[in-house]
Design a protein that fits this description.
Helix 3 crosses helix 9, helix 4 packs parallel to helix 9 and helix 6 runs parallel beside helix 7. Strand 4 (136-141), helix 8 (147-151) and strand 5 form a beta-alpha-beta unit. The protein is an alpha/beta fold. It contains nine helices and five strands. It has helices spanning 3-11, 14-19, 22-37, 49-62, 81-90, 98-104, 121-132, 147-151, 167-189, and strands at 42-46, 74-76, 110-114, 136-141, 154-157.
């Protein structure tokens, strides 16, 4: 079976994968809403495709996804090339997110690390720092036995009990979940109530 055929077959799994995660996603949505009601912020990050998803999610929180509302504070830690290259050069690439978390996360902020494998060292280091600072940590991954899933308060694991999922399917489900959260946030604050 070629990769395109495999991907098309796996697309059929997406509704079941998403439905299996709705309970946890609703909890994360509630945490984000409560964070905003307590003057907190959302901090999100990842590498590669997950970096794009982190930026996309931050945009939806700051701007909106659908309903007009007040702007909400969200930061994508993979968006500033100067900071990333300075930390990578002066320290190590493993700390490009951890150093930023140290600088901006306070107790009660929601911190979301996205890693399809759950093994990204720089994501894990940042989540460890966020836990130390008493942030509310969330991990989006595709592996329930990975370190990321074990160290966050809310592991959101895209998995199938029958077969290993391709990275693309995991990322597709992550994007659906992030859109769902953004819609819940819009709905909560659309009348300016916060």
């Amino acid at each position: 079976m070629n990769q395109v055929t495999s991907y098309l077959e796996n697309i059929n799994l997406i509704p079941d994968l998403v439905n299996g995660l709705v309970k946890n996603i609703n909890k994360v949505s509630e945490e984000i809403i409560n964070c905003y009601k307590n003057d907190g912020k959302v901090v999100v990050f990842g590498n590669g495709g997950s970096a794009s998803q982190a930026e996309h999610f931050a945009v939806e929180l700051v701007v909106k996804i659908k309903d007009m509302r007040k702007s909400l504070p969200a930061i994508s830690l993979n968006s500033n090339c100067a900071i990333l290259s300075a930390i990578g050069n002066d320290f190590d690439f493993n700390y490009v997110f951890e150093r930023q978390v140290e600088s901006c996360v306070i107790n009660g902020d929601v911190v979301i690390g996205i890693s399809t494998s759950g093994k990204s060292k720089n994501v894990i280091e940042a989540i460890n720092e966020a836990n130390r600072l008493e942030g509310i940590t969330v991990g989006l991954t595709g592996n329930d036995s990975c370190e990321l899933a074990k160290i966050v308060k809310y592991p959101i694991v895209v998995k199938n009990k029958y077969k290993e999922l391709d990275t693309q399917i995991i990322q597709d489900v992550h994007q659906i979940m992030l859109h769902y959260i953004a819609l819940k946030v819009d709905e909560e604050f659309k009348n300016g109530a916060y």
